[in-house]
Write a structure and sequence with these properties.
By secondary structure, the chain is an alpha/beta fold. The protein folds into two domains: 140 residues, NAD(P)-binding Rossmann-like Domain (Rossmann fold), CATH 3.40.50.720; 155 residues, Dihydrodipicolinate Reductase, domain 2. Helix 5 runs parallel beside helix 6 and helix 6 runs antiparallel to helix 13. The radius of gyration is 20 Å and the shape is globular.
Length: 332
């Protein structure tokens, strides 16, 4: 059954951890026709604390209790990836639309299962690839559509991060991100969904995807270096390198889109700035840092749930990103 949404989305959050403190949580109350009415964490004390600090009327330590709360008509799932499938499907069975964090699941098979249940039950499902709704990335898309740098030839992405220290790995919110059983793989699965979804958003469907993934330094039980190539159906060639064990002085976050007349350079996680060079002439576009990085996406999700706009990132698109990540990290 489909719960009446009554022109307002009353959200329940499953997993009100770090990501929800600033990136997403407060935005649910700042978006039109939207409010946050309940939160859940398995740790009751932490759930209660979050609810009190964020003025949320109700809190739970049980996900099913939140899902079945009659006042909650949409669910945001912000737990680690290993429970995305279970909670998404439980919410869909309760007839409630879902906004699920990235990566969509621990693997493509789980993501497909989520997609299939949503389609079968005809309940809405959105994946939180929220960068595609931020002004900076929308501007890049516009520049590409307008052929500002000519025909797109290739994309080069380098993402190099220092190792997590032994002390950092003892902190639970860091530790699960490099535990393949919980995260699907290492930091690649935590961060690359944003980058690969942007590539999909810019260039569309892929033709071929292949890569190499290694656990080079063996600091934890997941890949720490990934290299890969993608050929998009429109002929654009993508080359990416992700390394998570670099000296901190060598850290880098750079994506360059090269066209027949110039190039567009930007950082996916750093300063909100686009550098464009066209036939030798340089131009920079600067953007304000967003207080809540997910707010533009949440606006679109609310509109979609209220039948006022399209799905800003469908389950099908989420599955495609999971498939890209799997192909880039396949062990022969």
């Amino acid at each position: 059954m489909n719960h009446k949404l009554n022109n307002k989305i009353n959200w329940g959050i499953i997993g009100c951890g770090d990501v929800t403190e600033i990136k997403s949580g407060p935005a649910f109350n700042k978006v039109k026709n939207s409010s946050l009415v309940a939160v859940m964490r398995r740790d009751a004390a932490k759930a209660k604390d979050y609810a009190q600090r964020h003025n949320v009327p109700r809190w739970y330590d049980n996900a099913n209790a939140l899902i079945n709360d009659a006042d909650v008509n949409a669910i945001y799932i912000a737990t680690p990836p290993s429970s995305h499938e279970e909670y998404t499907i439980a919410a869909l069975h309760a007839g409630k639309p879902v906004y699920v964090e990235k990566p969509m699941a621990v693997n493509a098979a789980a993501a497909k299962n989520m997609m299939n249940v949503a389609n079968k039950k005809n309940i809405k499902l959105v994946v939180a690839h929220y960068r595609r709704e931020q002004p900076m990335f929308k501007k890049i898309k516009q520049l590409l559509v307008e052929k500002s740098i000519g025909d797109i030839l290739f994309v080069k992405l380098e993402f190099l991060k220092r190792s997590l220290t032994k002390e950092e790995l003892l902190i639970p919110k860091n530790a699960w991100r490099v535990d393949a059983a919980i995260a699907g793989s290492g930091l690649f699965y935590d961060l690359a969904p944003h980058q690969l979804d942007l590539m999909y958003y810019f260039f569309g469907d892929t033709d071929k995807v292949n890569g190499i993934a290694l656990n080079q330094q063996e600091l934890y039980n997941a890949d720490d270096i990934v290299s890969g190539n993608i050929i998009f159906k429109n002929g654009v060639l993508f080359n990416g390198l992700w390394c998570f064990t670099i000296d901190e002085n060598e850290e880098k976050d750079l994506c360059e889109i090269v066209g027949s007349r110039g190039k567009i350079s930007f950082s996916v996680f750093g300063e909100p700035k686009i550098m464009m060079t066209v036939e030798g002439k340089k131009e920079n576009f600067l953007f304000e840092k967003l207080q809540h990085v997910q707010q533009p996406m949440i606006e679109k999700v609310v509109d979609y749930f209220l039948d006022k706009g399209p799905n800003p990132c469908s389950a099908e698109e989420g599955v495609k990103v999971m498939e890209m990540m799997e192909k880039l990290t396949t062990k022969n």
